[in-house]
Predict the 3D structure of the following.
Amino acid sequence: MEIIPYDKRSGKIWFNGKAVNWEDAQIHVLNHGLHYASCVFEGERVYDGEIFKLEEHTDRLFYSAKRMGIKMPYSTKEINEACKNIVNIQKIKNGYVRPVIWRGSEMMAISAQKNKTHVAIATWEWGSYFDPKLKAEGIKLNISKWRRPAPNTIPWDTKAAGLYMICTLSKHEAEEKGFNDSLMLDFEGNVAEATGANIFFKTKDNELHTPIPDSFLDGITRRSVIEIAKSKNIKVHERKISPDEMKQFVGCFLTGTAAEITPVSQIDKNDFKVCDLIKDLSDSYQTMVRKRSAA
């Protein structure tokens, strides 16, 4: 199937307060967001025409903007309504929503006090982040040479554009070596996350272990999965996890808005089974997102 480049698609994008033609949602090449990464964003899933946990995503978007010193020209209510409206305009049933905030072109230097804040929201139909067959078998990860930076060096708890460059580098290297994604360690050498998703491990006695999100995002999907697991009386341990411990686990999966729940069959030399507990959590997650979207 031919993939249409994102700048060649049709329809409308919400751009600075109004829906404009897709091809007209353009910015100047000398914008501050491009040159200095003063840009934050969100990723949201649409299920059966409704955005899952829209308010939580919008709250995090505003938090990210505040942490980056970017003044928002709209309220959370206006952004929530804009997200809903553009999904309706585009007639998206099962897809993705990308709100993005960036500084404009008034100043071209490190300082950006006079730069206008721009906001856009785009949406499109989108299926599984990973190929469904691959997802069923479990994806394979290497271990990245890049680490999540120490929390006193970056605004680590934001979805800021600049934080993802090492993720792109890591994923490209992984794909070049025949892997599907990459596991990133934190600044202390402990297990952190994949390039765009949180990670969980399963023990032989059906307990879950997941890293403490103290240098990377505590994902909205991550929190939803913990909620589901606890409702099933599955113990969830949030703690520091050494890479050497991975050989003790029998199962592994990723969680994220894009990845949803994605089983992992291999990390470096460690193999994992796509076990029933992971499949059950995935089924329950799909039930959750569709029930809530229909509510």
User: Anything to note?
Assistant: The radius of gyration is 19 Å.
